[in-house]
Amino acid sequence: MNLFSQSRPKPNLAALQQIKTWVYDLLKLDPDIGISVSQLQCKEPCCPPIETVIAILSQPAQQYKIHKALDDIELDDLIRLFQTE
Predict the structure, then answer these.
(1) Nearest to residue 19, comparing CAs of 5, 40, 38, 44?
(2) Which domain of life is it from (predicted)?
(3) CB 84 within 8 A of CB 70
């Protein structure tokens, strides 16, 4: 029994990079500003089981959530997300 194994699937690196590129382009961010994209299990009541959290590591930091798996996010999802903020 391996106590240190992780049951989470590995992220799709191409999808992860595409999301970061879209975020930089849509928000016109400086390339020096970091972006963190994480797919998490949502534990909040009435929440879909998986959400993707996008953190813009600026001052102050900004956080956005999409209730979709990282691989399922499309450009239109991000456009809608940033238009409502």
Answers:
(1) 38
(2) Bacteria
(3) no
Say which residue the tokens 């972006």 belong to: 35
Within 8 A by CB and 6+ apart from 37, the residues are 16, 19, 20, 23, 52, 53, 54, 55, 70
Structural tokens at position 6: 């992780």
What are the tens digits of pLDDT across the range 6-57?
A: 555 567 899 999 999 999 999 999 999 999 999 998 777 887 888 999 999 9
Nearest by Cα to 70 from 24, 43, 36, 31? 36
Task: Provide the whole-model pTM.
Answer: 0.81
Q: Residue 1 and residue 9: Cα distance in Å, rounded?
A: 19
Q: Which tokens go with 62?
A: 């900004």
